[in-house]
Amino acid sequence: MKHILKIAFAVWLLTAALGLQAQNTRFSIATDLSVQHSFKKEQRFTAIGQTTYLHIHIAPKDGFYASFAYYSNGKFSNNLSATAKLVSTTPSQISYVNKANMRLKEFSMGWKKYLLGNAMSDKGINIYASAGFGLMLGRVENSHSVGIDTALYDVPVLSGRANFKRLSIDPGIGFDRNIGADIYLYAEGRIWIPTDGFPSRYIYINDRAPWTGMASLGLRVMF
Fold first, then answer.
1. Which pTM was predicted?
2. Closest CA to 107 of 32, 161, 165
């Protein structure tokens, strides 16, 4: 599934780029390597990943962007307790550790605004801000340190694997600099702020989670 999404997004980028070129509109394709960190208490992890962008420059300082990002597994654990459903069950409570792997991908579209310089400047440092909306696609896999019979006990998070999705708000800020031949080196920071979605029994913290931030370094090529 991951490879199909990457291929589909690459084909879409190429088709859109050819269409823009035919209309004499400037555009850029960019890619980066980034570090992702989840900030929610009881759900903190760090992962590495990549983002690919299509930037459509409708003016030197303004334009649209579309992006696809994917990250490696983030690992974290929680000390939890399972509670017996009946007072006659012994023991009445079982303490255990849930080890979790969480992996995130996201499609995002939004607006990019240069605050200093512009997307086509070949002198100095250009500073920009961006804001958009995203669709976060996640997968979580849980492993309990002890076997628990869920027919007898209520558990705060289920063992096993599940997929989930969230809509998100995606603000960011960054800077780029021309390094020659319409190629720009850029660094940026982004945040994925999830909206409330359908809760999953496989995710211990569901309230506006996962809330993540990314720091990225990459190259943008102007066409």
1. 0.85
2. 165
pLDDT along the chain (223 residues), means of 10: 50 50 76 97 96 96 97 97 94 96 97 97 96 96 95 96 95 97 97 87 91 98 95
Sign of CA dihedral 40, 42, 47, 53: negative
Closest CA to 108 of 52, 63, 62, 162: 52
* C-alpha count within 13 angstroms, C-beta hemisphere, residue 192: 32
